[in-house]
Amino acid sequence: MDVPPIQVIDLHKYFGALEVLRGINFTVGAGEVVCVIGPSGSGKSTLLRCVNRLEEPTAGRVLIEGIDLTDPDTDVDAVRTRIGMVFQRFNLFPHLTVLRNLTIAQRKVLKRSAEEAGDVAIKMLERVDLSEKAGEFPIRLSGGQQQRVAIARSLCMNPDLMLFDEPTSALDPELVGEVLDVMRKLAEEGMTMMVVTHEMGFARQVCDRVSFIDGGVIVEENTPEDLLMHPQHERTRKFLEAVQHY
Hints:
Layout: E1 6-15, E2 18-28, E3 33-37, H1 44-51, E4 59-64, E5 67-68, H2 76-80, E6 83-86, H3 98-109, H4 114-127, H5 143-155, E7 161-165, H6 173-188, E8 192-196, H7 200-206, E9 209-214, E10 217-222, H8 224-229, H9 234-243
Helix pairs in contact: 3-4, 3-5, 4-5, 5-6
């Protein structure tokens, strides 16, 4: 049996006395695109950040390609090289050019030569239609372009899977489409993706499954058509009525 790229087992997360995740069980199969939706404060971003140990789970297990990230003996940094992460805020180094932003981790983590790292960076910029911006500094780019650079930076590490934490929430509405287009292309190429998003149109068109999380639990999980158009739970229905995008 193939090992799923992401497997979360009975995951709990406390911040002080507040239990943010309450026994989450969640799996993403190879080549799947799974969207996680829910209201603010529901625990969806915390779940995503626990998947690559940016947040430390309080209890439960997180397995990446069968390797238990919650095992104290696991080399977390080594496993993270398989995972691309794209944040709400682009987290680019403002004092470095786009090209340098894309080569620094390749050089330090993957030990690639300057020439090889540069070649990979240009190829990844071509994938997000930004090869002409290699010499620019982030401040000279639009928010959408900066987020596309951030995606290209993750792709430079040749990840097996990608995590997206509300990648369009910091963008002006007219810039959202260009980022979602890049994500659509990745999905079409077979990239395994876990996406926390408020973009219901993207969830409906691109995702294989949608999970609705509220109060730290997965309330409902189904195909986009069934969950977004025919939700089974009242909490899901109320959320979808409120966002008014489905």
